[in-house]
User: Fold these one by one.
Assistant:
Number 1:
Amino acid sequence: MAAPLYSIEKTIVYRKLDNGLQLRLLPIPFSTSVSVATQFRVGSRDEITGQTGYAHLFEHMLFKGSQHAPGDSYAQTMSALSGQFNASTFFDFTNYYLTLPSEALELALWLEADRFIRPVLSQQTVENQQATVLEEMATTIDNQPYVRDAMEFLLSQADGTPYGHSVIGSKEDVSSATVEQLNQFHQRHYRPDATQLSIVGTYSDNTHAWVDAEFGQWQNPQPALKVPSLATATPLAPKNKQVHGEIIDARGPWPAVLLAWHTVGQQHQDAAAIALLEAYLFQNRASLMKQSGLTDPEQLLTYSIPLSMDLMGVSNLVMVPRAKTSLNQLVTNVQKMIIDIADNGIDDESLHQLKANWLNQALQRLDRPSQLARLLSATQQRDTLTPLTGPWERINTVTTAQIQQVARLYFADNLVRLDLLPSWYIRWTKSLLEVLPEGVSDTLEESVL
């Protein structure tokens, strides 16, 4: 099943420019479009005190004018070409990606280089994008029940690490950012030796010359970039302790519980086993959480998006209970599942299926050039020449003993629990429904829903 990963990987053309920029080209015959992805090794973890949110804010700025494409020229040009473009910022990286007709690739590379190397920030554009980010913050965080307090609670668990503040930053820091500070942020962090550029689709024989012409003269600032290798990286040790907190939000429609476990960064030797265990417990349709709720479920909803950063990881699970089920019962159910795996492991058939599911997801990305370009630009240092097969080979070597070991090390004894509680009258009603006969609570729940 993994053969396509190996065969496609052999067609990747890899180059490293003299300035350190890493280039990967993957031809897709008979395609009429090309996808370009550029990832920079800069994210919120690189921000200093008083400048939280700068990586995300600067991402916005790069769509608002450069030396040769002022104002909204970039967006207008892409729209005229029927191009699709976007960007995202995370703790460890910022990426930019676009898809457009193949014949426009030379123009696209010129535009990308111009905005990455020569952005033009004015007071007006900074103020406009500050307002945009603050509106995004209000819409996605502050105006949603539970989200702000839950986010700050989880971030407090990483206090003292580079991951102790949110990617979007604080209102105060975003509002006070200046043109000069943002220009300094760009000069420090947007550099060729922190850049991976990937081109996937149909491209011209002149593409190498275009890349050299647009990116080859880009100079690195001082000091030299420090990229920790697997041998020298210092992972953040997981906190092996129980934490239990609660927040009350009058806007909350119903109680819920958020569970989290500190794990390890994506370069750690246990990362592959943890990824499979997360899928087994929480994520796919065959997960233990889904299977436990197929008949007479105790939860209305489960939701999990594990976070895997360079130096640490966080597994998480949000559960919304049925009227008849308490938050304590939901937590007990999850802990029983984890303890069972820590004590007894999983069988070979289950592990085989987990690997097959992981591989199927990897194969699906091969049919999506935009996702494939982003994947290539997110290549870890150890997978420089094996961006597709390196991660798979780590997954494929995971054993049932390793699954049992990571369950014991990272999940059995370090649960972070946060109860998300609505107003007192909803909590009181919920408590009453928990002690009523099951048929009665089910009927009332159905009426409310």
Note: Residues 229-233 have pLDDT under 50 and may be disordered.
Number 2:
Amino acid sequence: MRKIKFGTDGWRSVMAENFTFDNVKLVAQAIASFLQDHPLKDNGVVIAYDNRFLSEHFAAEVGKIMAGNGIKSYIANRATPTPVAAYAITTHNAAGAIMITASHNPPEYNGIKFIPEYAGPALPDITNKIEDELSKVMDEGLVYEMALNTAKSENLYEEFDPMPEYKKHLKQLINLDAICKANLRIVVDPMFGAGINYLDQILEEEGCSVITINNYRDPLFGGSIPEPSARVLTKLKSRVLSEGADLGLALDGDADRFGVIDSNGDYIIPNKVLYMLYYHLLNVRKCRGPVARSVATTHMLDRMAEKFGYQAEETPVGFKFIGESMRKRGSILGGEESGGLSIQGHIPEKDGILATLLMAEIRAIHGKTLTGVIKQITDEFGTVVSERMDVCVDPKEKDRIMEELRAFDPAVFNGRQVTKRISLDGTKVILDDGSWVLIRASGTEPLFRIYVEANSEQQMREMQKEVRAFFKM
């Protein structure tokens, strides 16, 4: 049996190969063992699942293991987005939530993530403890399980609908009245995933005009992957243009990430979504506070924070670190370039439903296209161009590049003085004109991710080229 290892956001693996019922039971037992000393153990846990193949059955098995360990489960009665499962922790005052999902991974994958009582992604100290418990379980082979009928009769297994409370909460965070008064025409794409009937229903219940595509369960995700990227959202783009819609809004497989298409068919990258939202929070909502961003995310947020007397907090890659900043430092926005965000007043978990509704709010209140809002911001704060490039290398070359990367500390890069070197997560150098480059290695593949933010397209391409030449990628 292969080693079960928790990654940046839980354990994910290929179904029937490693993600099997037996292995799911082992992980569930490890989580149950971890929860034995939890002060909220008697309040139970939330269990939810996405639209992937057999997800609801995997969730039921987890519930049986929880019952076998004397822990009550509140089982979602439908496919449920990860942020909705996380929010349900707060309504039940639960010890946490167990989510069956592989998020935006290919269809053959499934996964488990544990969300602690604070309703945000588990930090490494928690996942390390679960992995320690997992090692014991695998060594001893002891799994405690209770039959479903028995668990129900002993009040250890209860189905519930997580949608109403979440929708009620979200409607308090969003200016839906402004969205509907703007008479926006919106195309919604839940990408066959767990976000079906969330974003579209919230908008329709307020009288908005909504067209929905890909809004039925398909474990094969239409033959693609449920990732709301420009490459995948071609159907949404076409529909926005053919319908003359104001916005296209997409959710990934478990609805914790977002994709946004403007009325002209342009895909709005997450970095731009983030700085539009921070600008909106500061200037329209009059919120005050810092912003948390990952080391790979746009420094446009830093420029805005500085204007208002704040400093952006830079975190390692992974929303768990951003969520921690939101909980402990009071950041009014937390986000990452890969398409996750949350705001103050919400849970410290990335939420695609929240993000897309906020984009509709911005479109409505500013009275111009998102492209127009971006121009307004860049006129004030300057232009930045951002891109991530994934470069595959020969596996034999990875160690060499890693060694060179650790020593990478140039005084000059791309003809500019290097003002700062950061090794928080990968190696990042910042130049004297504010542009920067970050190089990170994949933990599982012979692949390097090159993130560049520059002041022009030409400069960005030059910096990408210089990185590849230096490391002979």
Note: The chain has three domains: 11-164, 174-381, 385-471.
Number 3:
Amino acid sequence: MTLWRNRPNRVHLSRRGLAVGTTAVALGAMVLSGTVSSVAAPDSTSLSLPASVSDVSLANERAALAASKTPMTVPSAGTTLVGFAPPAEPDVLDGPAQFRIAANLPSGPLGIPGIVLKAYKLAATRVAAETPQCKLPWFLLAGIGRIESGHAGNGNVDAYGNTRSAIRGPVLDGSLAGNEVIKHGNGYARAMGPMQFIPSTWAAWGSDANGDGKSDPDNIFDATYSAGRYLCAGVTDFMAKPNQVNNVLRYNRSVPYANNVLAWAAAYAVGVMPTTPIPEMSEAPSEKDKKSAKDDKDKKKDKKSDESTTPSTPKSSKPSTSKPKPPPTCLGTICLPPGLIPGQPAPKPKSKSTTPAKPSASKAVPKR
């Protein structure tokens, strides 16, 4: 016992000192673990938990926090997203692509919108194949389209030829001068579409021109083709001089209308405005105007008959050797050069009547 107490290398610690030392070691371990965790996870959203929470609870909280986060990938400014395309214009998606025609076609003569010009020419070509005897030119359809709707509102159609806004004429109830009274259903009719068809006429002549399976008066291709079919029904040589005005009157029974259409058709045919102004549309002629026009016509007729009865000075019986030039084709007040209308034959020159000389008796040819 004495020897053990006298050993110089033994350190004697009291119970209080041992408890203080154990507490200091525990606190140091906790500080060290917090420093390591802060270096490993620099996220500002890490939890600050009290020292009394167990290690298992701390691990569960951190796992739940990591699972709640959603990773996000932000593309750089020059990156193109795969499978993404900007939305197209609504009118391009209105129908199948096979019925679509480019809307940026070049304009035609005197500013005819390109897609409307395409409709006029396609209609004339198809009508010519079906009724070649009619010989309806595209510029006649253009003249009608110009008067009826200003070429569908200056080409206000989509890539399929459908008018962007409905084109409707006035109500045909007789309230406007010159308009007929036409019933339709429980009310009065209105002309429809760029070629201004009456509903009953469209029911009889409306046709599908663009192959989409429906005939639509508000489609420029359907409307122009249907107008050509209607104009050529039972007609031969539409633009022949004696019949052209009457043929146009079948579309609208107004002489000013027919003269206006023919004048514009002539201008579109050559692509140049005439030096004389194109007659503008006017209101329906009154009874007084009709009587005055009839009197003028009768006076001209009487004057021609008087001239035919007046004896004329006999001309030389020598036939002319020069070939007469074919007269131009006139549309209303404007004349076109010959051969411009498709299928139009050149008019035959008028033969001058000459009195043949009587053969002498010595040169008479015996009858056989």
Note: The chain is about 40% helix and 5% strand.
